[in-house]
Design a protein that fits this description.
Length: 180
């Protein structure tokens, strides 16, 4: 995901927390090592590519003059927070109302796996807060919260715990057959 958009880096510490927080000690060490290997290999390749193409591993091809274009400048988060969550032009809850199911299922997920629930909630809050503090929080002229798109699947995960409690085993198999 980082190779698609650099802000995917915001998810890494939270997914690492899941890898290190679930299972036996041995399973946590193994899954943490696998996660880091899976994350560091593409990051290293991206750094090599950016250095070859732009002359620096820190350059992603999005250089600009923030003071001239007011792009990516830090600002108070209130306007961006409103815009990303509830506004009619970019609001996540308006353009993707199914995310409310994730909110409804968060307590059930927390009862099943506190580590996973906290990691998901923290990752989503961190992403929204980071994007909201940028002057380009709106993502340009597109409709909907473009910079929150990669967070939507994670916002929906808690709904699985909630729906799982509502659907019995036989109905689950029938639903799986229909949707697969």
């Amino acid at each position: 995901a980082v190779t698609a958009h650099v802000t995917a880096l915001l998810f890494l510490p939270f997914w690492l927390a899941i890898a290190l927080g679930v299972g036996t000690r041995r399973e946590r060490v193994t899954s943490g090592a696998r996660f880091l290997a899976g994350a560091l290999i593409p990051l290293a390749l991206l750094a090599i590519y950016d250095h070859a193409r732009f002359g620096s591993i820190w350059e992603t091809g999005r250089s600009f003059q923030p003071d001239r274009f007011n792009y990516g400048v830090l600002q108070a988060p209130w306007r961006g927070l409103w815009g990303l969550t509830l506004s009619p032009g970019k609001g996540l809850l308006l353009f993707c109302p199914v995310v409310a199911l994730g909110l409804a299922g968060w307590r059930r997920l927390a009862a099943r796996s506190r580590v996973v629930a906290l990691a998901i909630a923290s990752a989503l809050i961190a992403r929204v807060a980071f994007i909201a503090t940028r002057s380009d929080w709106h993502g340009g002229f597109c409709l909907g919260p473009r910079y929150l798109l990669m967070a939507v699947p994670f916002a929906l995960l808690p709904a699985v715990a909630w729906l799982d409690d509502l659907v019995d085993c036989h109905r689950r198999r029938a639903l799986a057959a229909v949707f697969v």
